[in-house]
Design goal:
Blueprint lengths: L4 H7 L4 H15 L11 H8 L3 H13 L3 E4 L3 E4 L19 H25 L2 H19 L5 H14 L3 H10 L6 H7 L6 H19 L3 H28 L1
Antiparallel strand pairs: 1-2
Helix pairs in contact: 1-2, 2-4, 3-4, 5-7, 5-10, 5-11, 6-7, 6-10, 7-8, 9-11, 10-11
């Protein structure tokens, strides 16, 4: 970790329990900790985050109440399936993978994530900036390997939302979920192979957002996010047309 948990928590206006719960939640939502995975032991988490086991127990207790974790007697603590968390938005389509719903979600995300990027440029802590770069690097590795990158794409946006230091942005993206980025599935329906050039363009857009946040340029961060999501809507419309003609 780039700075002590205590200092990171102070910068974010949190106590250690809130900070640890946020870190674990981000790992779950980004897919680093997958449904069914066993959580590291209290001792392991205490050592990794340099906190007491009491802090670990309190953080885990809060995540259980949120429906993200569950205990199994004699086995440990496990990550729940997304469907078990109850985190849904009633105003979203029942099928988030339909193109109409994807476009609607992107339009909604644009209205919200511009603000998140602007605030991230103003409020981002060193640890949060490092997390955004980590997510960007993971996305870059998947793109260069020509592998599906939706999970890493979503994790990047979630990290930007976290860096806004407004938990409502994180809750919003959590409710929308990774189904708002179904590039691979739409390509499959259209009988199209992955497009390396397209993935590289998306990667460049992510880099523009990262650079603006790192440079503390709030205006450019918002504009870079707007360009990324508006171009994303155009890309999904093109995929939808291809799928209809196939």
């Amino acid at each position: 970790m780039s700075q002590s948990p205590k200092r990171a928590a102070q910068q974010q206006g949190q106590n250690l329990t809130q900070f640890l719960a946020g870190q674990l939640k981000q790992r779950i939502l980004s897919g680093d900790l997958k449904p069914g995975n066993k959580l590291p032991t209290e001792q392991q988490l205490a050592q990794e985050f340099e906190v007491s086991r009491t802090v670990v127990r309190e953080a885990i207790s809060g995540l259980k109440q949120s429906g993200l974790l569950t205990s199994r007697q004699g086995s440990g603590v496990f990550v729940l399936e997304p469907s078990q968390t109850g985190e849904t938005l009633t105003f979203l389509s029942n099928n988030p993978r339909t193109i109409a719903s994807v476009i609607e979600s992107l339009e909604l995300r644009t209205a919200v994530e511009i603000g998140a990027a602007e605030l991230a440029a103003q409020r981002c802590s060193p640890a949060q900036e490092a997390r955004i770069f980590e997510c960007y690097s993971a996305f870059k590795a998947r793109v260069e390997a020509r592998e599906p990158s939706e999970k890493e794409d979503y994790a990047f946006h979630l990290a930007v939302a976290e860096a806004s230091n407004n938990k409502k942005f994180v809750e919003f993206l959590t409710l929308l979920g990774r189904d708002t980025i179904p590039r691979s599935e739409l390509r499959k329906k259209a009988n199209l192979r992955s497009d390396p050039e397209l993935e590289l363009r998306i990667l460049k857009e992510h880099r523009d957002i990262l650079d603006a946040i790192a440079g503390q340029d709030s205006t450019e961060a918002g504009q870079a996010m707007r360009r990324h999501l508006e171009q994303g809507a155009d890309r999904y419309r093109s995929l939808a047309r291809a799928a209809q003609l196939s």
